[in-house]
Amino acid sequence: MGIFWLFASLTFLGLIAYGFQIWAIRSYLSTPCDCGEGHALPRLFPPVSILKPLKGLDDNLYDNLISFCNQDYPEYEIIFSLQSHNDPAFKVARKIREKCPDRNITVIVEESNAGLNPKVNNLLPAYKASRYEYILISDSNVMVDEKYLREITSHIENPAAGHEIGLVSNMIKGVGSRSLGAVFENLHLNSFVMGSVCFLDKFLRMPCVVGKSMLMCKKDLEAIGGLKAVKNILAEDYVLGERMRKSGKKVVLSSYMVQNVNQYWGIKRFLNRHTRWGKLRWKLGGGKYIFELLGNPVFMSALPIVFWQCSKLTVTFAILTSLLKVAGDFYLGKKTGTELDNPFLYLLAPFKDLLIGIIWPVPIVSNTVVWRGNRYSIGKNSILSPYPETGFWSLRYRIMDAIKERFA
Amino acid sequence: MMLLCDFHIHTTYSDGSVELRRTIDLFGQAAFDVIAITDHVVNGDNSIGKFAQRFNLSVREDNFDEYMGHIRREAERAWDKYGMLVIPGVEISKNHLTSEKSAHLLLIDIKDFIPACWNYEKIFLEAREQDALIVACHPHYMSDGSRDTLFLWNNREKYAKYIDAWEVANRDDVFNVISLKKYPYVANSDFHKARHLYSWKTLLNCEKDTAAVKQCIKHNKGVAITLFRN
C-alpha cells in the first residue's frame, strides 16, 4: 500500500505542476499581441532579414514558406539556405521565389562544414548574405500569419523597453495532425512543451528559447560570439538564449504563437525527436531532468499497477488521472486554438504520456543522437562530437546498422 | 529544368488512404510539376472485383462523373496555388486469382468511363479514341509478390503496339526487363499512403501542358527517372 501512496502523492504533485503550466500558458495568452496599434509613440519597423535553413521536405513546406512572403511589414528579405541543389526543398524554394516576384527572396545553395550542428552550418551562408541589422532565424516547419513580423519586432522596438532586449522567441503550437504520430507530436507540443516553456519563463524566470523563431540584432549576436560560437552545440537555440541573458540582454518570450505543422508523422519519428530532446535537456539541465518525470502524472499513476498490483484501486486511480490529463489537454487545445479535428483523439493523450514516460530514462543511459542522418555524441551543455565509426563503443551501432540493412 | 512528375496516384475514390484534396496538397507542397490521379476501375465480372466494388474500392460508372468533376476542380486549384498540372485518369484493374491473368493499365487523360470488364482490345481502342495515354503498370515481378500483374508482359507480342509506355519503376521496384526490351518508360509511385511520396518518379523535358506531356511520354525523348527521397 505504501508504494501506492508514494506514487499517488507524486501523481498529485504532477497534476499540480500541470495546473501551473496551464496557468502559465493562460497568462501568456492573455497578454495582447502588440502589432503596432494603440501605441502612444509611433512605432518603428526596422528592416529584417529572415533566415530560413532548409533541409528536406517538411510537412506543408510550400505553405510554411509562402506564409513568410505574405507579411504585412514594410521592409524585409527572406533567405532560403540549402546545402545541396539535390535537396528536394530546393525546388520548393525556387517555386516560392517565382510565385512571389515582388518579394526580396534569395536562395543560397552552399555546402558549409564549419561545425557539427547541421542547422548552424546551413545558417552561416545565409547570415553572411543577410543585409539588415535584425535577423530572424526561422525553421522551415513553421507557419505564421501576416501579423507575425509586426508582432515579433514590436518587442525589440518597444520604446518602453529601450534596447535591453537581445532575443525574442515565440511560443509554438503543433497543428495539422493527420496520422497517429502527428497526433502524439502535436498533443505533446501543445501540453508538455508549451507548458514547460511558459512555466520556466513565468515562474522561474528561466528563458527557454526554442529555435523555431528567434529574432536578434546582429551586434548583440556578435557580442556573444555569433553563430560560429554555437556551431558544435546541438541545442544552439537554448544556448544562444542563455548567453544573451548572461550578456545582460533580456530574452523575451512573445505571446504570438507560431504554428509548427506536423501532419504525417510516424510513431518512430515522434519517439526519435523526444528522445533527442530529452537528451538535450539531460545534458543541459542535469539533475533537473529528474523532475520531468514528476511532470508526467499519467505515467506516475500507472506505476502502482506495475510495481504493486493490478487492482480496482490502482486501475481506477490511473484512469481518473488520465481523464484529468485528457480534460487539461482538451482545455489547452481550445484555449490555444489547436483543437484536434476529432475531440475523441484527446483520449490518446494518456497513451502518448505513457510512451514519453517509457523513453524518459533513455537520455540517462545513452549520449548518442542521430540527427538528419548523422550520429553524434553529446556532452555537457549539448556539445557535439562525432561518434567514432570504429572501435569498441561504436560496435553496437555497427551491429544494429548491419541488422537494419539486412532486413531492409 | 525538367518537370517532376508522378502518373500513378490513388485517393479515397478507390483504395488510397488520403483524400483527393489532401493528395493534391501533398504533391503541391513538395513542388511537383505534373501528376495524374488514377484511381482503380475494377472489373466486376469475378468475385475479387465484386468485393472491391462492394466496398467502394473502385471508381464505378455511376460515380465516374463526380470523380472527374472533383479532379477538374482540384486541378484548377492546384494550377492556381502550386502551378501544378493535374491530369485525370484511371487504373483499369483486371484482377484475377493468378498473377499471370491479372493486368493493370493506366489510362491518363481519359474523358469517359471505360469498364474494366471489357476485353483488352476494346479497352485499348476506346482509350485511343479518347486520346488517353496508355501505360502498363507494374508489369513484372514485384518485391512483395502480392501485387504481381504479369498478363501484359507475358502477352507483350500481342499488346505492346497498343501501349504508349511501361512502368520501368513502381514505388520501390525497378523492372529491368522494360529497359532490356527498349520499351518507352515512365516511373511512378503507385501512391496509396503519404509515405509513398518518396519513391520512383518521372522527369520530363517538355512544356507543362497535358498534350505536351503525353507527347513527350509517347515519343519517350527527354524522359528520365529519379528516386525521390527526403
> Compute the gyration radius of chain A: what is it?
22 Å
What's the CATH architecture name of chain B? Alpha-Beta Barrel
> Helical residue percent of chain B?
25-40%
Biggest sheet statistics of chain A: 8 strands, mixed
Count of individual domains of chain B? 1
Radius of gyration of chain B: 16 Å
Across the major sheet of chain A, the strand order is 3-2-1-4-7-6-8-5
Classified by CATH, the class of chain B is Alpha Beta
Low-confidence parts of chain A lasting 5 or more residues at pLDDT below 50? none
* Residue-averaged pLDDT of chain B: 93
Low-confidence stretches of chain B: none
Structure description:
The complex is a heterodimer of chains A (408) and B (230). Chain A is α/β, with parallel strands linked by helices and 408 residues long. Chain A has a domain at 368-407. Chain A has helices spanning 2-29, 61-67, 88-99, 118-129, 148-156, 180-203, 218-223, 236-246, 267-285, 290-294, 297-307, 312-336, 349-359, 362-365, 395-407; strands spanning 48-53, 76-82, 104-109, 134-138, 142-143, 165-175, 213-217, 250-261, 368-371, 374-378, 384-386. In chain A, strands 3-2-1-4-7-6-8-5 form an 8-stranded mixed beta sheet, sandwiched between helices. Chain A has a 3-stranded antiparallel beta sheet with strand order 9-10-11, covered by helices on one side. In chain A, strand 1, helix 2 and strand 2 form a beta-alpha-beta unit. Chain B has one domain (3-227): TIM Barrel, CATH 3.20.20.140. Chain B is 30% helix and 25% strand. Chain B has 8 helices and 10 strands. In chain B, strands 1, 2, 3, 4, 5, 6, 7, 8, 9 and 10 form a 10-stranded mixed beta sheet that branches. In chain B, strand 3 and strand 4 (103-108) form a beta hairpin. In chain B, helix 1 runs parallel beside helix 3. Chain B starts with a strand and ends with a strand. The model of chain B has no long low-confidence stretch (mean pLDDT 93). The chains are: A alpha/beta (408), B alpha/beta (230). The interface between A and B is medium-sized, with 19 and 15 residues.
